[in-house]
């Protein structure tokens, strides 16, 4: 039972987060200048929430 619940928990977290939990960029992606700029542009949150903070929260979840 426990082995099945791990996958259910991941599926639910993925659905709630809109997919960022499963598709969050890696530190290597952020280090590349071209992709780092795009990540900062498109993952920024509401005023005062940086893309770095959103990625950290996705990794935490």
UniProtKB/TrEMBL annotation:
UniProt GO molecular function: oxidoreductase activity, acting on the CH-CH group of donors
Domain HpaB/PvcC/4-BUDH C-terminal: 2-61
Gene3D superfamilies linked: Butyryl-CoA Dehydrogenase, subunit A, domain 3
SUPFAM superfamilies per record: Acyl-CoA dehydrogenase C-terminal domain-like
Protein name, as recorded: HpaB/PvcC/4-BUDH C-terminal domain-containing protein
Organism: Paenactinomyces guangxiensis
